[in-house]
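pinning this so it doesn't scroll away 📌
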Amino acid sequence: MQAEIIAIGTEILMGQITNTNGAYMAKQLATLGIASYHQQVVGDNAKRLADAISLAEQRSDIVILIGGLGPTPDDLTKQTLAAHLNLPLVEDADAMAKLAARVKQQQRPMTPNNRLQAMYPQGAIVLANRVGLAVGAWVEQRQHAYVLLPGPPKEFVPMVDHELLPRLAKYSGHQEVLESRVMRFFGIGESQLVTDLSDLIANQTNPTLATYIKDHEVTVRVTASGKTQAEAAAKLEPMIGIIMDREGRYFYGYGDDNSLAQELVKALAASDKQISAAESLTAGAFQAALGDIPGVSAYFKGGFVTYALATKAAFLNIDARQLSEHGVVSEFTAKAMAEHARQRAAADIAVSFTGVAGPDKLEGQPAGTVWIGLARLGEKPIAQVYHFPGGRNDVRKRAVMTGMMMVLKRLRE
């Protein structure tokens, strides 16, 4: 049995985004023993997409279409497949209810293009979207199976894992049950992680390993098969144990939809601690990331954004002369910001960020130089200097994530 992947999107063809979905899908097909000898990338054009589907039918049993399920005029995938198969589009009641609730919450009218996201080819099996609004679909016709999947990775991956893979396994005759766990790591690059795990990857059978680079972090998906879900899950544990022995200092949590911010809020809840922050170069990004997590208000009282030296002195009640003497990019300033933020917010723990986001130097320090401070009730504040690569926004993102990892490790001690 063979499968062919067709990624849809002019932005992929133009090199504006990387086709990570195609790589992810190919790895999952290999796990199931489904051959995949061809992949295509097609722009947002109905005629060329129809031609790509016809070509795929000539050499593959399963045609997997990724992207183009949204509400914009260039989202043409489901309409093109439906026309190709001579099927009308119909609404999925559950998806429409979810869409209606979202529209009501936003207090805006429902538009025809919005409704399109809840539609699928008649007779297809709906693949539910756990994260977004556009439904996927599984269509069997003409001795082929056709799959519609969303393009955004945060929607694509959960749909593949939870909706598509079990159906693919059954369709291909794969008798065993698959069980996967996603391990998330921060502070190590993919190339180093792959090197550290090279013997496991080279000799993998059951379970298998696959690494994926995310936004400044790396994930490892460990997948095992067994006659039952319990048997498959049991096979995962020894491999996970080996990985943790080697890379545990970089590990922060499990799950496709997890994040450092989510784990940090969980740790604050588990330890019943209050957090604050004082941010210079990150300009509130750390606090904004915390604010995205439901329930954080019980553990985050608020914090400070103090870009200028004078603001650091005024908002945090730090001696301005000492700040001038030591400079903004210094261990002293990072420690003082963290401790004074903790005191002024009456928090148990606080983190600070000060440094040079770039592109220019500051106080003779090159772009990417960042001091992160950490203060905890009853302890002396500490600070660590980092030299982050990349442009201004990359430096700021890395700083925020590094600060989260610092706090998370301290809370888990």
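📌 and the second one:
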Amino acid sequence: MTAVEPVSLGLPSVPARPLAERRRSRRIQVGPVAVGGDAPVSVQSMTTTLTADVNATLQQIAELTAAGCQIVRVACPSQDDADALAQIARKSQIPVIADIHFQPKYVFAAIDAGCAAVR
């Protein structure tokens, strides 16, 4: 049996070293996911649904999780969105970060709701 020669597809070769060195940072935990420091790069995304629509938001989070997402952000620009955070954080399979829009009182709602982080 003879060895088969590899066929060139014209693709560039994989660089021998990283394209850029990682910036030193402090490692934190976002729920069970380590971020920063020497932790592996985590896959994060943000929902595009109205956060107040709990079912649509949870459906999108499930789809993101199936695609390999490890952390998800949800927008929180209104009181209705803040009120929905508890259900979303409780039912999400991955850590939820509340993306607060100009209302400090929503920060406390997100913390009380069980969000993994607030931004």
